[in-house]
Specification:
Blueprint: H1 3-14, H2 22-28, H3 33-44, H4 48-66, H5 71-78, H6 83-94, H7 98-110
């Protein structure tokens, strides 16, 4: 993978909650925004916005599964700002809204026998 794309991905991974702008990421690796968008898609198969959304959803799912943070706190930690978009994309990816997802996990754990 191109080292510039790797550098951008590392920056994103280090700070999910940041409101990343394409122009800002492009500048970080000394590319124009249009060249950066083209290179990122060529290297990853996804647009930068798709990549950010996917990683934020994965982070949110992890937090829902492993913490007792509220949905709003999970959104904040994952860098998500729109509740409606979050619920829509989360449901599309994981089959249910975040609240129902967490409830299902809690019910699963509650009904597991002790070893």
């Amino acid at each position: 993978m191109d080292r510039r794309v790797e550098q951008v991905i590392a920056e994103i991974e280090a700070d999910f909650a940041r409101a990343w702008e394409t122009a800002q990421l492009a500048e970080m690796v000394n590319l124009s925004a249009s060249r950066f968008r083209h290179l990122f898609k060529e290297e990853t198969g996804r647009t930068i916005n798709q990549y950010l959304r996917e990683r934020r959803l994965e982070r949110a799912e992890f937090l829902l599964r492993t913490t007792f943070l509220s949905i709003k706190e999970v959104m904040s930690e994952a860098g998500v700002t729109s509740m409606s978009h979050f619920v829509t994309y989360f449901k599309k990816r994981y089959g249910r809204p975040p609240t129902a997802y967490r409830k299902q996990l809690a019910n699963f754990v509650k009904h597991q026998p002790f070893s």
